[in-house]
Amino acid sequence: MLLQQQIKEDMKSAMKAKEQEKLMAIRGVMASMTNKLVELGRMPTDELSDDEVLAVIRTEVKRRKDSIQQFGDAGRDDLVAGEKAELVVLEAYLPAMMSQDAIRTIAIQKKEELGITDKSQMGKFVGTLMGELKGKADGTDVKAVVESLF
C-alpha cells in the first residue's frame, strides 16, 4: 500500500475514533500533499510517490518543530502541547533516522575517501555527505557530527 493511501486510511480511522489531534495532523499533511500535487502541475486527485509524500511529511515535521520552538519562546505552553501531539503523529510515518554514531562512522569513512583535511572543505564535505544520507539522517545531526570531526 502506498504511503498516501495509508495516510488516508489513518484519517478515516481517526475520524471514527474521534481522535482530534491525530485528525488535525493528518488533515494538515493531506492539504500539503494536495498543494504539492498542484505545485507539480498534476491533478489534486493524483497520487504522490512515497518519496514525495515523505518529503512533504518532513516539511511538516520541520514546521511543527519550528512552531514548538516559537511557541515555547512566547510562553504558549497550550499551543506547544498541541504541536507536540501532531509532531508525534507525523513522525510515525517517517522511517527511523540514523544515530549520530552511525553518521560518524560513515562521515569518517567519507572524509578519508575524499581526502578532506581542513575545515575550509567542510561545506563540500557536508554537501557530499548529505547527498549520500538524504532521507536516512537528520541534517542537524549530520552538521553536528561533521563539526565535531574538524
Automatic annotation (TrEMBL):
Provenance organism: Candidatus Nomurabacteria bacterium RIFCSPLOWO2_01_FULL_36_10b
Taxonomy, superkingdom: Bacteria
Protein name, as recorded: Glutamyl-tRNA amidotransferase
Single GO MF descriptor: carbon-nitrogen ligase activity, with glutamine as amido-N-donor
InterPro entries from the UniProt entry: Asn/Gln_tRNA_amidoTrase-B-like, GatB_Yqey_C_2, YqeY/Aim41, YqeY/Aim41_N
Coiled coil stretches, renumbered: none
